[in-house]
């Protein structure tokens, strides 16, 4: 598990504007209704993010992260994974997520992503450049989204696990050569679940394909270092925020 109910995203290292957010329900092409949280900047800058949570699905950390993005001028929608198996129930610490993770399939997940994209495209942001930003399981899914024709401008993955073989289609390392969009990968150098040799292998596989990418590993930082409570890793969190915002700005400007 990445974040418990008391975790909160670090504040962005920029002067934030005002924003507002709300719980919403989206509907996938197969009729599945799933929970999401949408955050709107009062002064949009012309970029959008879809936030992929960790294994627990859409809980408070990611709702607040959506608001933090919106305060920087980036419209955000954070999505839940488990509409098909757990409905619209709460994702607090009492939620037994693993049985639902085991029933998660890429095909239906990508259908949910498309529903989130359609929502963003019909909102104030229109067809602005859109980025996937994921954490843990969501980091893996963010990069796997890059193997599909989903029209993303870029992919951001925090602590993307590389050993999960979803639907028997291969691990992230197996499929890294299929990624079509620029990648920013952020890892903890002391993350026991993601060895440094795997991080280096991902970097090399992306280099071999020629896809634009930046892979950053923060020495001494653990899994889930990006947490306001982790004051000893505040410098890494600030750097990670800066890199994410620069990545989004740079690639949005190219598409403009």
UniProtKB/TrEMBL annotation:
User: What taxonomic lineage is listed for the species of origin?
Assistant: Bacteria, Bacillati, Chloroflexota, Ktedonobacteria, Ktedonobacterales
User: In which domain of life is the source organism classified?
Assistant: Bacteria
Checking InterPro entries in the record gives: AB_hydrolase_fold (IPR029058), Dienelactn_hydro (IPR002925), Dienelactone_hydrolase-like (IPR051049)
* Dienelactone hydrolase domain: residues covered: 34-251
Q: Name one Pfam family in it.
A: DLH
> Any idea which GO molecular function terms this record carries?
hydrolase activity
Descriptive protein name? Carboxymethylenebutenolidase
Q: Which Gene3D superfamilies match?
A: alpha/beta hydrolase
């Amino acid at each position: 598990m990445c974040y418990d109910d008391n975790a909160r995203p670090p504040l962005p290292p920029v002067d934030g504007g005002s924003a507002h957010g709300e719980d919403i329900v989206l509907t996938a092409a197969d009729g599945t209704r799933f929970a999401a949280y949408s955050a709107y900047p009062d002064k949009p800058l012309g970029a959008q993010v879809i936030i992929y949570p960790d294994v627990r699905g859409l809980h408070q950390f990611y709702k607040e992260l959506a608001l933090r993005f919106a305060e920087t001028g980036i419209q955000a929608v954070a999505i839940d994974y488990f509409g098909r198996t757990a409905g619209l129930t709460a994702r607090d610490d009492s939620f037994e997520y693993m049985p639902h993770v085991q029933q998660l399939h890429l095909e239906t997940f990508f259908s949910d992503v498309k529903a989130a994209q359609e929502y963003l495209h019909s909102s104030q942001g229109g067809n602005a450049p859109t980025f996937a930003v994921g954490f843990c399981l969501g980091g893996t899914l963010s990069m796997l989204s890059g193997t599909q024709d989903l029209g993303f401008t870029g992919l951001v993955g925090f602590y993307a696990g590389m050993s999960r073989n979803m639907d028997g289609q291969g691990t992230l390392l197996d499929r890294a050569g299929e990624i079509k969009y620029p990648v920013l990968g952020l890892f903890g150098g002391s993350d026991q679940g993601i060895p440094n040799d795997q991080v280096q292998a991902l970097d090399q596989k992306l280099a071999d394909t020629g896809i634009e990418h930046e892979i950053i590993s923060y020495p001494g930082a653990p899994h889930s270092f990006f947490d306001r409570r982790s004051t000893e890793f505040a410098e890494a969190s600030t750097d990670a925020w800066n890199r994410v915002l620069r990545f989004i700005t740079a690639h949005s400007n190219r598409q403009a």
